[in-house]
Amino acid sequence: MIVTALVLGLIVGALLGLVGGGGSILAVPALVYGVGLPLSEAIPTSLIVVGAASAVAVLPRLRRGVNWRLALIVGGAGVATAYLGTMVNRLLDPRVLLGAFALIMVIAGVRMFLPTRSKGGPCALPGGGVNWRSCLPRALATGAVVGFLTGLLGVGGGFLIVPALTLVLGLPMGVTVGTSLVIIVINSVAGFTAHLGDVQIDWAVTGAFAASAMVASLVAGRLGRGLSDTVLKRGFAVLVLGVAVYVAVQALVG
């Protein structure tokens, strides 16, 4: 089990470091189907792993790769809704949750294949800077939705944040990756805190998974800065859709 956690942690961490998201959508299925944890334990465990790996992955991008104001707005908007998502999580059957997980992944993956409608999107002003009058409502709505899903499904939200920042808010992929990682850290802390009342953690598995994920995320974060936006977006989309199919099949067959 520990060896499996180490290997899967490397994959999750590498994905976070490269594209600033998607680690959660692998972490939960990996912990359930790879390590053998029940979904109720896999959700809070994934939040620890993804939050820690994201914090490490953002280090190479701290200087020029993060829009800090946008990260704090989107992340802060999701803190309250993460608790709401956790409350709903306790009311639903695990197979329903996994089915919802797969559906959301398909939507996110397909959106990442679509071209960005306009350079800069609603956040950009013609002469440079940020158009907060147009951007702020979208940023708050994005944060609220992602926060809810963080509590509901045990994800840091990167697989939704990345499409939202690029397609809805119009950020370039280079800035999206670092900004997404900061938001994931905020969401993961909020989501895990919401689960504290009934959390059961296998700390040996969690430690092994988190340690390998942090190492891989740091290495991948440095390598990812040399890849083009198109390669990162399409690679992310293909992986999301592949995992969605697997999770959907598992949810249907039980």
Structural class: mainly alpha
Q: Tally the helices.
A: 10
Q: Average the pLDDT over all residues and give the rounded result.
A: 80
- Broad shape: globular
- Count all strands and give the number: 0
Helix coverage percent of residues?
Answer: over 70%
The biggest beta sheet reads: none
Distance between the termini: 22 Å
Can you walk through the features of this model?
- This protein is an all-alpha fold and 254 residues long.
- It has one domain.
- 76% of the residues lie in helices and 0% in strands.
- It is built from ten helices and no strands.
- Helix 1 packs across helix 3 (39-57), helix 6 runs antiparallel to helix 7 (158-168) and helix 7 packs antiparallel against helix 8 (173-194).
Keywords:
254 residues; mainly alpha; 10 helices
Secondary-structure blueprint:
Layout: H1 2-19, H2 23-35, H3 39-57, H4 68-89, H5 94-113, H6 132-153, H7 158-168, H8 173-194, H9 203-224, H10 229-253
Condensed summary:
Helices cover 76% and strands 0% of the residues.
